[in-house]
């Protein structure tokens, strides 16, 4: 036996909405994986921390572009300690190694045999190439908040948006996990960051994390009707070079009025309109968001879809450069993930509900 009996979360079937899925999820006993049933390249990990992500929620109702096959264990990203490594994996990993799991290569968002091994569990199994070392000075909580947040932000801002030093960027949803990562990366690049959100206390924290300016879009002075004037005032009337939009809805059209001619508009997500797609894994987007083509044309705007997971699955080779750059920033101390809140495993439902309500700043973990 590799360890005592543990626990895992199970999604038995897709629900109409993520909150319905949270209500229905169950926690069941989990025996430690039996090495006799594993492959030579497999590694057994004792999960110490798992990120609570927006994608975990959308996936549970089948409203994400990629769906694991129920029943499955959710939890895309996690960190932990190696308990056992198969004969081939042992060339790289040994018991006690502290690791971060790569959600593109293992767990619910991966495409192979390890899809069933999510991080909301005591134990997980991953192929050796799906693990990266957890930095010695990082906590497990920080490790669980790395790739999904910072790789997404890098792909959108740098690979797609070509953000340059000295440019200005408007980041919506800046207090969320990927939004705050975008603030950090834009800062590292050397851009001026204008961050938006709907909670004054969280925005104060975002500013402490590096935003040059903050705008509360929930008040009358920063909402969609006033956004253009606020942004133009902060950019000497010029407008921003890049918009990072993970929110969607009414803020999107307002944002197009905030840009300079020839700006880049990055579509990262649609947190304000989560029910674009039908629930229970049905295909189609009956509630698709819309953008004004006349404004796009008159602004000479480049509108860029930034589906990090889809793009990466289609061309895995694009990861090499961005992972190398992230690792360089990690090694020189420039990049350290922010953990907004932690929950014990038995409060997984509360953690998921809090994520749905955007109660915390930055990453949230169990």
Brief descriptors of the model:
alpha/beta, 5-stranded antiparallel β-sheet, 6-stranded parallel β-sheet, single chain, 12 helices, 366 residues, 30% helix, globular
Describe the sheet with the most strands: 6 strands, parallel
Main-sheet strand order equals 10-9-8-11-12-13
- First and last CA, distance: 25 Å
Average pLDDT, to the nearest integer? 95
Unreliably modeled segments? none
- State the order of secondary-structure elements, H for helix, E for strand: EHEEHEEEEHHEHEHEHEHEHEHHEHE
Q: Which secondary-structure class do the elements indicate?
A: alpha/beta
- Report the total helices: 12
Shape: globular
Percent helix among the residues? 25-40%
Please state the CA-atom Rg, rounded to the nearest Å: 20 Å
The share of residues in extended strands comes to 15-25%
Q: How many β-strand stretches?
A: 15
Protein model, in words:
The model has no long low-confidence stretch (mean pLDDT 95). This protein is α/β, with parallel strands linked by helices. The chain has helices at residues 18-24, 54-60, 140-144, 147-160, 177-189, 200-208, 224-234, 250-256, 293-298, 308-314, 319-331, 348-356, and strands at 6-10, 26-30, 42-50, 78-85, 98-101, 123-127, 131-133, 168-171, 192-197, 213-216, 240-245, 259-267, 302-305, 339-342, 363-365. Helix 4 packs across helix 5 (177-189). The longest helix has 14 residues, at 147-160. The two termini are 25 Å apart. The strands form four sheets. The chain has a six-stranded parallel β-sheet with strand order 10-9-8-11-12-13, with helices on both faces. It is globular and about 65 Å long.
